[in-house]
Amino acid sequence: MSMFGFGKKDEFPDGPGKNGDGSGDGDGGDKKPNRPSNARIVIWIVVGGVGLYLIGSGLYGVLTH
Fold first, then answer.
1. Where does the chain cross the membrane (predicted)?
2. Residue 20 CB coordination number (10 Å)
3. What would the pLDDT profile of 7-26 be if each residue is shown by its tens digit?
4. Whole-angstrom Cα distance, residue 40 to residue 62?
5. What is the distance between the alpha carbons of residues 4 and 23, in angstroms, rounded to a whole number?
């Protein structure tokens, strides 16, 4: 399948590792399909931290002036 989702279709849509059986990718099959990836969790933590910092610094600025 192409990068943008059109063009040549995937030749093996039900190939190894796509059904969560652990074959092909070596993860042991313990990956849950509805769980977000670790990278997405880290991004949300970083964005949340920046947001909390901005809110906290804004409240501090309002209260000190």
1. 41-63
2. 13
3. 666 666 666 555 555 555 55
4. 33
5. 26
